[in-house]
């Protein structure tokens, strides 16, 4: 089995642990916080200083693949950490759950994570460090930018375009040919019927921009 390190020790790491069972051997875990390791018997190291100590002691450290377990709306952080690990010589690991589906002509970027019962359909294009979470679907000819996270059970219809680092919440539905701008957030259960501007948060059915709180007098 291929040796791999994890960056991130919370919920996303536990999900990926199940997806990688029997495929990769996790040899080290890193997190910015001092947390317990999600892998029995695998040591955890804190921050970049902990990484430096590990790399100085682990024989052939650069041969170890990398998996960044940072989920939620932190796609920019996930992508930045993946690129940092690549700069140290660690190839990003694509996590393709054995019960996920990828069409033969779909393009899957570096370090993507396709979890149980997810589907990436014909002609879809995924950037780097994309998460398609449990039971989510990305239909034909969609284009997802780097660091996108499609939450559990979300549905992207055909030809949807999602900008870098956008987050699509649990159970959201995005209708055909809609564009969601970079850094945008689509709330859980939202039904998106029109384009979403960069950095905008939309909620509801049909989805509308989340009202901004007015400053108190």
Characterise the protein shown here:
Keywords: Acyltransferase, Repeat, Transferase. Belongs to the transferase hexapeptide repeat family. This is Sugar acetyltransferase. With 217 residues, this protein is an alpha/beta fold. It folds into 2 domains: 86 residues, Rossmann fold (3-Layer(aba) Sandwich); 111 residues, 3 Solenoid (UDP N-Acetylglucosamine Acyltransferase, domain 1), CATH 2.160.10. Helix content is 15%, strand content 27%. It has an 8-stranded mixed sheet, with no helix packed on it. Strands 6-8-11-14-17-20 form a 6-stranded parallel sheet, with no helix packed on it. A 4-stranded parallel sheet has the order 3-2-1-4. Strand 21 and strand 22 form a beta hairpin. It starts with a strand and ends in an 8-residue tail after the last strand.
Spatial sequence of strands, sheet with the most strands: 5-7-10-13-16-19-21-22
Distance from first to last alpha carbon: 61 Å
The biggest sheet, with number of strands, parallel, antiparallel or mixed sense and barrel status, is: 8 strands, mixed
Order of helices and strands: EHEEHEHEEEEEEEEEEEEEEEEEE
Q: Kindly report the average pLDDT value.
A: 94
The helicity comes to: 10-25%
CATH topology of the largest domain: UDP N-Acetylglucosamine Acyltransferase, domain 1
CATH superfamily of the largest domain, please? Hexapeptide repeat proteins
* Uncertain ranges: none
Shape: globular
Can you count the beta strands?
22
CATH class of the largest domain reads Mainly Beta
CATH architecture of the largest domain: 3 Solenoid
Strand percentage lies at 25-35%
Q: Provide the number of structural domains.
A: 2
The SS-based structural class is alpha/beta
Return Rg in Å: 18 Å
Count the DSSP helices: 3
